[in-house]
Amino acid sequence: MRAYHRQEGPVAAANCAGHLQTIARPVAAMTATYPNESTSTRHLHRRDQFILQITGVTAMMTERGHFVVPPGHGLWIPAGVVHQSRAWGEVEAQTIYVTPNRERKASDTCRLIRASSLVEALMDEAVRIPEIYDQNGRDGTLIEFLLTEIARMPEVTLHVQVPPDPRLGEICKAVLVDPSSNLTLDHWADKCGLSRRTLTRLFRRETGQSFSGWRQRVRLLEALARLGAGETVTGVALDVGYDSPSAFAAMFKRELGAAPRHYLRWTDQEVALR
């Protein structure tokens, strides 16, 4: 039985993560659980990190954008990227820490993926192998196969970009704190001392989206986190700024291709190779 198989709570997980950065193998792994609404401190790692969500939803703020990680999804965070997590619902996640390797050509950007059943099965094995595993044996082969599969998974877009421009950054932070706010672009233009046209152009240049499109994405992410924590569709729809559950459901299906509850249940329909 490995010494660091399962960590209970953010403090134990953080202590274990620090230890795993020093393991003399290319990959070190752990399973951790986090109580509802628990948060980590802002931190970074010396190794690349891949987090696979098992239960609950994790909201992850990074210096390169804000992500929501539902069950059946995984988030790749490159070494040195500052990030902070918040748990929605009782969260269980499996994590690997990967020594950066130029030959492996791992992504140098944050990537959110929808994990295949194969990736889920390989992660389940990775958290069970010894810390000092045999790199030339079965465990080493399994780890290399896992990294190959993670790299080939298609990226999904359940995130919003936080622009580096400090004026836009303040607007984005305010929306992230209160996604239900209906303050207009004219309001923010006045607050920033810019014309509406200039602010519109800046926002699209920095984020690739209009302000309204960016805010809708924030509301979608907030809704995913709350739905994953077990809140009702009606309550979530009203809390994130929609006038009715039907309007919210229409937006959700348009963006993600499924009704709110069906989307979060979809991963349970796959048969894991375990």
Task: Considering the chains and any ligands shown, give keywords for the structure.
single chain; 274 residues; alpha+beta; Jelly Rolls; Arc Repressor Mutant, subunit A; 2 domains; 8-stranded mixed sheet; 10 helices; disordered C terminus
Describe the overall structure.
Keywords: Activator, DNA-binding, Repressor, Transcription, Transcription regulation. There is one protein chain. The protein has helices at 10-20, 117-126, 138-152, 166-177, 185-192, 196-207, 211-228, 233-239, 245-256, 260-265; strands spanning 6-8, 27-34, 48-62, 65-69, 73-77, 83-98, 111-114, 159-160. Helices cover 41% and strands 21% of the residues. It is α+β, with helices and mostly antiparallel strands. The protein has ten helices and eight strands. Strands 1, 2, 3, 4, 5, 6, 7 and 8 form an eight-stranded mixed β-sheet that branches. The longest helix is centred in the last third of the chain and has 18 residues, at 211-228.
The total domain count is 2
The CATH class assignment of the largest domain is Mainly Beta
Oligomeric grouping of the chains:
single chain
By CATH, the architecture of the largest domain is named: Sandwich
Low-confidence stretches: 265-274
Provide the β-strand percentage band.
Answer: 15-25%
Category by helix and strand content? alpha+beta
Shape: globular
**CATH homologous superfamily caption of the largest domain:** Regulatory protein AraC
Rg on CA atoms, Å: 20 Å
CATH topology grouping of the largest domain: Jelly Rolls
Distance between the termini: 19 Å
Mean pLDDT across every amino acid position:
84
Q: Biggest sheet: strands, sense, closure?
A: 8 strands, mixed
Total DSSP helices: 10
How many strand segments?
8
- Series of secondary-structure elements, N-terminal to C-terminal: EHEEEEEEHHEHHHHHHH
Helix content: 40-55%
